[in-house]
Amino acid sequence: MSMPGLIVVGSGPAGISAAESYREHGGAGPVLVLSADPDLPYERPPLSKEFLRGETDDVALHPAEWFTDRDIELRHGHTVDAIDVDGHGVTVDGERIGYGALVLALGAGPSPLTVPGGERALQLRALTDARRLRSAAADATSAVVIGAGFIGCEAAASLAMRGLSVTLVAPDRVPQEKRLGADAGERLLNFVTSTGVRYVGGTSVEAIDEDGVRLDDGVTIDCDLVLAATGVTPHGELAAAAGLQMKDSRIVVGADMRTSAADVYAAGDVTFAFNAAAGRHVAVEHWQDAAEQGTVAGAQAAGADATWDVVPGFWSTIGEATVKYHAWGDGYDVSRVAERDGGFTVWYEADGTAVGVLTCEADDDYDHGETLIAQRRPTPV
């Protein structure tokens, strides 16, 4: 970079949105995106669905010319070694590069499966993971998926739709019972099992070996491949080493995505961000929220005014069913189900106000729920 401009560390939705927003708001100087990922920026949501099923290979976030047109330089496959917040520079492969503004979009990585033989399990986070899993699925007839979060449910359904005999293993009696409640869990269970997946709940994995996956009740499930969908851990190490204010493994930022260091911003899964509508810091791991936080960070870095004030949310497609979810993500007191024509809505309340909504074939409720949550109004049920 000939002069200090914007450096973005990370090429996921937060990082690329930050670079785009910086340019859209008149940010001057060069823009450099550094990423350890060997692939050009890509969409992650299709990896557990269309890509895994072999229905598409096109998961590019933008064509190459999109970056050229915006004068955004990409260096992928390069790891940032250190950040000097006082000297306004980063070190990459031994080279020091100065910045005028820095956006840390460090993302998160799969949490390790800490059981004997856990290293035998495949993961699904990056495009390289997805290629490996899809290749393994092509040669397999059976699979065990460990973890019934949305990624686990999506991947299990996709593998079953490919013709594999799939067992989904999780500690909850139904998928995500602790997070979303029994009523929602029953409906997610129906979506998963309708694709042919066998669900084994209320259990945990003790070990993985050449015979398969051994559960805590002594049962071993034979399989050709194992996928661990056991959550993610934010990549906060680089920020912590630079002395930024942290909350556990996340970077603490305001609603403007500013960190505790001058001219340094953060966005996406690695943040513990203040949400202006919630009036408190929240942690989210959703694709759309990462993009929105990146947009705020890029605008602020360019000198524009922007604030993160939307209710977090995402969509998930399990087999043929799509569910949509808005929530602050830090719990609820009571949940209530409303049946809808061809679908349903689950309303979540805390202290008499709406804090979440989960819908299927009920888009009006999804949109209305976002408003109720943001305005701290009661649910309609």
TrEMBL record:
Under the heading Pfam families, the entry gives: Pyr_redox_2
| Any one Gene Ontology molecular-function term assigned to this protein's record | oxidoreductase activity, acting on NAD(P)H
Record key words, sorted: FAD, Flavoprotein, Oxidoreductase
| Any Gene Ontology CC annotation | cytoplasm
Named cofactor requirement(s): FAD
Q: For the FAD/NAD(P)-binding domain, which residue ranges apply?
A: 6-294
Q: Does the keyword Chaperone apply?
A: no
Cross-referenced SUPFAM superfamilies, in alphabetical order?
A: FAD/NAD(P)-binding domain, FAD/NAD-linked reductases, dimerisation (C-terminal) domain
Q: What is this protein called?
A: FAD-dependent oxidoreductase
* Native species: Mycolicibacterium hodleri
